[in-house]
Amino acid sequence: MSQLEKVLINVDGVNYQVDAGQNIIDACAQVNIEIPHFCYHPSLSIAGSCRLCLVVTGMPAIDRNTKEILHNSDGSMVIAWAPKPAIACGTKVCNNLYVITNNDLVKSCRAGALEFFLANHPLDCPICDCAGECKLQEYANAYGSGVSRYVEEKNVKPKLTEIANKIYLDNERCVLCSRCIRTCREVLKKDYLSFTSRGSRTLVCPDTTADIDSNYIMNIIDNCPVGALTSKDFRFKMRTWFLKTTNSISTESSAGVNTKVWSRENKIYRITPRQNNLINDNWMTDSGRMEYKKYDDSVKIKYARIDGSPCEPLYAIGRAGEILKLGSIAIVASARQTLEEQFLVAQLAKECSAKVFVPAHLGEDDGFLLSADRTPNMRGAFLTGLIKKEYPKTDLLDLKAKVLSGEVKSILSFGEDLLALGFDSKDLKNVNVIYCAVSENELSQLAKITLPVCGDFEKSGIYINRQWRAQKFDAVYEPKKNILTAVNLIFNLLKIVKGEDYVNPSNQEVVKMISQEMSIAFDKMNSSSLLIDSSKFADIKFPELKALHYDA
After folding, report:
1. What are phi and psi of 499, to 5 degrees?
2. CA 190 → CA 43, 183, 193, 210, distances in Å?
3. How does pLDDT run across 117-153, given as a tens digit for each residue?
4. CA 518 to CA 521: how far, in whole Å?
5. Number of continuous H segments (helices) and E segments (strands) in the chain
């Protein structure tokens, strides 16, 4: 059956139209009916081991002779109920399937299963990092008996096993759902974890003979339904109910991994994957989880400077605008900029008659969710016209030649470190460098004008990933008062260069401008992505390899 096909099922006496081909857990979730489960995960194979998702199932009874459906005296169908409950994770929906999720038998099955899970489970909730997002807590409260009959001594198991120097494994909290084992086997393609021993003494054990160096091992933390696997980086940092979540996009590469950023009071505590079955499913890289650390306050540019002396941002922007009006300008844009920023840079370049350079940043492609293009928006640079012909180089030697020949006398760089892209400090002695960036480096100290701008987590915008999918992301927190967004900074420069004065449009208004000019409905995008027609860029040789949901 096609996944778009619908089937009629009856759940607890109510008829629903649901997608064909899915199991009962997913079908019920589609109509907002919860079926508790531990071992089932939509991106992994079926294990059917926790038995928490047991439900009663039935089908219309059929007369063996006539092959017709039997009816009661009142005209309703006779339902032939299965003699025993079935696991909802391993049972596919079909037309006229009847499911009962809340009768006494089902409730008894759930309460009994939970009693076994809790028999040897420690009372670690007050100190467990998973408290507040633990499925065992939620299910015990919603479906448990509320009373413990267990009076024996609980089993003692290892409580602090380190995995890959990133994860702590607490076997006493483990419910033996095998999600972590299946994640390693089916996603990482390595048997890093396995069960040892039997019965109530079963343990999850890492392979001590293997060097667990996977960049995806932390996905087992997200898949663990309880607090058995916790992040070493997040351990004891903050209770999850104090944290705000913001939908974001990983800037680590062009894969466009969907993420959730967890923050409190302008401080980020962790980044986790956000499910998107068109792009990254439920996964992300371990390195992508640590992206927030590169914007530590200690390395941020805190104020605008002219010749090393602090000044007001608007004054520095005014001086920068005057330099741009002198001509002989080159603009170094970035594939790390949002689509809105790139669109405005293209307008600024047109007004200044400036040549635009966009350097590439390349690394090893892992064929999964870390692509060779280590920027989030190289496709946006093509779409906005910042790059016109071929994939850019990884250096700025062409620009350096123009500087040394005297053709370029001023450079406006948006976050790109010229000294890491082919320039020496002596090459810039006679050049007016205007550097707009987040973090301090040698270039920010050498620049004629240094302008601080918002980091990736302080702004919202659109990135276009390797699939040519445009995706929105939101700001995690507000920038400090003396830090401008790049959109506002570029608008202020445009006003000076054009000799005009107006109120800077909002980010949403810029998106409308882009939509009108490109005839692409960016302004109509919701929380999902927008696939862009990339046929006119078919001749461009992009560096990414075939990967998850991407055909190179």
Report:
1. 70, 30
2. 16, 9, 8, 10
3. 999 999 999 999 999 999 999 999 999 988 888 888 8
4. 9
5. 13, 24
Selected residue with higher pLDDT from 214 and 210: 214
In angstroms, the CA 490 to CA 357 distance is 17
Task: Give me the phi and psi of 164, to 5 degrees please.
Answer: 55, 25
| Radius of gyration in angstroms for the set of CA atoms belonging to the chain, rounded to a whole number | 29
Distances (CA, A) of 401 to 393, 406, 435: 14, 9, 20
The tokens describing 456, both together, are 């990736």
| CATH for 6-102, options being 3.30.1540.20, 3.10.20.740, 3.40.50.80, 3.40.47.10 | 3.10.20.740
Encode pLDDT of 421-441 as tens digits. Answer: 999 999 999 999 999 999 999
Q: How many residues does the chain have?
A: 552
8: Cβ–Cβ under 8 A, 6 or more apart, which residues? 15, 16, 17, 95, 96
Condensed to tens digits (0 to 9), the pLDDT of residues 16-35 reads: 999 999 999 999 999 999 99
Quickly tell me which residue has 């890492």 as its tokens.
206
Structure-token pair, residue 15: 């008829």
Where along the chain do the CATH 3.10.20.740 domains lie? Answer: 6-102
The answer to whether 375 and 359 are in contact (CB under 8 A) is no
CA-CA distance, 191 to 193, in Å (whole number)? 5
**215 near 244, Cβ under 8 Å?**
no
Q: According to the CATH classification, is domain 301-537 in 1.10.10.10?
A: no
Alpha carbon separation from 311 to 145, 306, 409, 445 (Å, rounded): 66, 7, 23, 14
Q: Report residue 83 as tokens.
A: 């003699």
Q: Is residue 131 classed exposed, middle or buried when 0-12, 13-18 and 19+ CB atoms within 10 A define those classes? A: middle
Element (H, E) at 401: helix 397-404
* pLDDT of 216 higher than 60: yes
* Ordered alpha helix ranges (H), 134-276: 135-143, 179-186, 219-223
Residue with tokens 């759902």: 177
CATH architecture of 122-295: 2-Layer Sandwich (3.30)
Across the chain, mean pLDDT equals 94
Q: Tell me which residue of 228, 218, 231, 225 sits closest to 187, measured CA to CA.
A: 218
Distance of alpha carbon 197 from alpha carbon 232, whole angstroms: 26
Q: Which residues pair with 437 in a beta bridge?
A: 452
Ramachandran sector of residue 549 (left: φ over 0; alpha: ψ -120 to 50; beta: rest): left
Distance (Å, whole) CA 304 – CA 450: 6
